[in-house]
Amino acid sequence: MQKTKQAKRVVATGMSMITPLGRTVQQNWESILASKSAIRYLSDMHGKCRIGGRMPDYDLPETSMKSKIHSLAKALAVDLFEDAQFNPRSLTDKEKWRTGCLLAN
After folding, report:
1. Is residue 37 located within the same domain as residue 66?
2. How many domains does the structure of the chain reveal?
3. How confident is the model at residue 1 (pLDDT cuts 50, 70, 90)?
4. Domain assignment of residue 39, given as a range
């Protein structure tokens, strides 16, 4: 069996959270340890489900898309890059094309 040379892969992980409990991982962790809950009755909701967590108006970065979901995604990406001590601006063009970011909920 012939061995093939595999490219060296590096995975830099970072964490980021923006939830009704807090804007950062640390704020969320402190809220959880203090047994806080952001679940409330939402009187302005239509339909059968009227309980949930409402996102406060956090100071989020501007995006060209002007929607809250894009601002949240950008804020999460910036925070997780910072947490991973990763600076995408220091990459070459080739490295930028080989770099990805996965956001999940």
Report:
1. no
2. 2
3. low
4. 16-55
Average pLDDT, rounded, for the chain: 84
pLDDT digits (tens, 9 = 90+) for 62-89: 777 677 788 888 888 888 889 988 888 8
Please tell me the distance from the alpha carbon of residue 38 to that of residue 75, in angstroms, as a whole number: 20
What φ, ψ does residue 23 adopt, rounded to 5°? -90, -15
Q: How far apart are CA 86 and CA 78, in angstroms?
A: 10
Largest Cα separation within the chain, whole Å, is 66
Q: From CA 83, how far away is CA 54, in angstroms rounded?
A: 25
Query: Does residue 75 sit in the same domain as residue 96?
Result: yes
For 5-51, what is each residue's pLDDT tens digit?
667 777 768 889 999 999 999 999 999 999 999 999 988 877 788 89
**Separation of CA 37 from chain center:** 20
Helix (H) or strand (E) holding 74: helix 68-83
